[in-house]
Amino acid sequence: MTTPAQTESTEAKAPTSVVLTDVAAQKVKALIEQEGRDDLRLRVAVQPGGCSGLRYQLFFDERSLDGDVVTDYDGVGVVVDRMSAPYLAGATIDFADRIDAQGFTIDNPNAGNSCACGDSFS
């Protein structure tokens, strides 16, 4: 299997979609298996709200909407709607299970500011 880096020029390009770490992909896969459904994908969206203006939403979804950007990570489908895609391009979703952090985390290079709780950004 070839990777995009092997087929593109040596000029670096910014990612156009969300990146899911291996740890996060394993956790998403396990959660979907617990649901007992094979039609679910992880939908990542940006909605107005939160103390910084925009809030992340992560949820399982079986729908396919017009303009969705779908990326597969080792059998885990990650879906971003067309309105959220520009806000999330290049964002990395990871899963932490430490004493200081538990749950999914999002490292978003497009976020100028974020609140202390990490749930919203601008």
TrEMBL record:
Record-linked Pfam families: Fe-S_biosyn
Domain of life the protein comes from: Bacteria
Gene3D superfamilies tied to this protein: HesB-like domain (2.60.300.12)
GO molecular function: 2 iron, 2 sulfur cluster binding; 4 iron, 4 sulfur cluster binding; iron ion binding
Family annotation (InterPro entries): ATAP, ATAP_core_dom, FeS_cluster_insertion_CS, HesB-like_dom_sf
Limits of the Core domain: 19-119
A GO biological-process term: iron-sulfur cluster assembly
The protein, known as: Iron-sulfur cluster assembly accessory protein
Source organism per UniProt: Micromonospora echinofusca
